[in-house]
Amino acid sequence: MFKHIMVPIDLAHIDVLEPSLDVVADMAKHYDAKITYVGVTSNTPNSVARTPNEYEQKLDAFAQKRHSVHGQPVTAKAYGSTDPVANLDDILIKAIDELGADLIIMATHLPKKLDAVMPAHGGKVASHTDASVFLVRPH
């Protein structure tokens, strides 16, 4: 059913992503799907990397580490942005089309009142793509 899973990754918050990474591994094995880990970084130095190239190298290392966990084929794709927070949803939607992903698995937070004003990323991505979107809440 699913052949290509895209997983948005924030390298600054890997610890929060663990529940969703477990789901990614299970789904990829179940469907024998390839996985692309996608990261969005600033074009300026940040807490994870000094340059977009360094960020891409760290994202690729993360992808290879995850490959050793689940054994499915992996790739990593980093996107640079002048404002990753403001541009995140649009970049993820663009990535889905570029990569041809048919399932997006994203970590998400528990619903908050602020979501009425600023919707969660998963909701916007789901409403602007034909791909299936699986949101994984924290334990």
From TrEMBL:
Stretches assigned to the UspA domain: 1-137
InterPro entries (UniProt xref): Rossmann-like_a/b/a_fold, UspA
Record's signal peptide: none
The protein's name in its UniProt record: Universal stress protein
